C-alpha cells in the first residue's frame, strides 16, 4: 500500500523499522519517520494517555525540563513579545514561564484548550514542546504555525530527534503509543528550506526557526 508522508506529502517512503506493535516508514524526501495511519490511536485512546500526564507550573523539575527551550528562546525575544503555546496539554506551564518574564501568552490544545480563535491572529513567537511527535498531519499544522508568525518571529520546538536506525530500534521514545512522527536534523533542515526559515539547534532536543 502506498503511504503518503504526513509532512511533505511525498510518496517516496520506505520501511525504516518494525517492532511487535507498529511499523515505521522513512520519507525519502524530508526524512520524517512516521507510523502508518492505520496504526495510530483513536482520539479517545489518545486523550486517555494525555489525561495521565501530571505536569504543573508548581513542579520545579518540569520547569527545568522546559527551560531547555525557554532560555534560548527568551534571549532572542524583544521585551513584551507576544506568544502562543501550541499543544499546551492539561497543565500549561511554559506559557506561565513566559508570562512571568513579561510576554503575553495565548494557549491552544485540541483536547484541553480548543479555542480555534487563537489560531486566527499573528504572534511574535510560537512554542510547541513535546508536540510535533504527536501530530497526525505535521505538514498542515506546522505550515499553519509558520503563517501565524510575524516577520522575524520565532517557532520554538522541543522533540527528541532520530539519530540512526540502530539507535531507533532501542529508543524509548517510540514506546509511547501517541508518538507517531519522528524528526531528525535532516527533517528540520528540509522544513526550514521549504519556508525560508533560519534554523538553530541550541540543544539536543530543541529547534528554533526564525521567519525572515
UniProtKB/TrEMBL annotation:
Its EC number is 2.1.1.-. It holds the Pfam family Methyltransf_23. One of its GO terms (molecular function) is methyltransferase activity. GO terms for biological process: methylation. InterPro entries: SAM-dependent_MTases_sf (IPR029063). Gene3D superfamilies: Vaccinia Virus protein VP39. It comes from the Bacteria. Keywords: Methyltransferase, Transferase. This is Class I SAM-dependent methyltransferase. It comes from Halomonas saccharevitans. The lineage of its organism: Bacteria, Pseudomonadati, Pseudomonadota, Gammaproteobacteria, Oceanospirillales.
Amino acid at each position: 500500500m502506498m503511504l503518503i508522508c504526513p509532512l511533505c506529502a511525498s510518496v517516496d517512503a520506505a520501511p525504516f523499522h518494525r517492532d511487535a506493535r507498529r511499523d515505521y516508514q522513512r520519507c525519502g524526501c524530508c526524512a520524517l519517520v512516521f507510523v502508518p495511519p492505520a496504526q495510530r490511536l483513536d482520539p479517545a485512546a489518545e486523550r486517555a494517555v494525555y489525561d495521565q500526564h501530571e505536569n504543573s507550573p508548581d513542579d520545579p523539575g518540569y520547569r527545568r525540563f522546559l527551560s531547555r527551550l525557554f532560555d534560548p528562546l527568551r534571549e532572542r525575544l524583544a521585551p513584551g513579545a507576544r506568544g502562543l503555546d501550541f499543544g499546551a496539554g492539561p497543565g500549561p506551564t511554559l506559557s506561565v514561564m513566559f508570562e512571568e518574564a513579561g510576554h503575553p501568552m495565548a494557549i491552544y490544545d485540541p483536547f484541553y484548550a480548543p479555542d480555534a480563535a487563537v489560531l486566527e491572529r499573528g504572534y511574535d513567537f510560537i512554542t510547541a514542546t513535546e508536540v510535533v511527535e504527536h501530530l497526525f498531519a505535521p505538514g498542515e499544522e506546522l505550515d499553519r504555525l509558520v503563517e501565524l508568525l510575524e516577520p522575524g518571529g520565532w517557532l520554538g520546538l522541543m522533540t527528541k530527534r532520530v539519530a540512526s536506525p540502530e539507535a531507533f530500534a532501542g529508543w524509548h521514545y517510540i514506546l509511547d503509543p501517541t508518538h507517531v512522527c519522528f524528526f531528525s536534523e535532516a527533517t528540520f533542515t528540509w522544513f526550514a528550506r521549504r519556508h525560508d526559515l533560519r534554523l538553530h539547534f541550541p540543544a539536543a532536543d530543541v529547534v528554533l526557526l526564525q521567519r525572515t
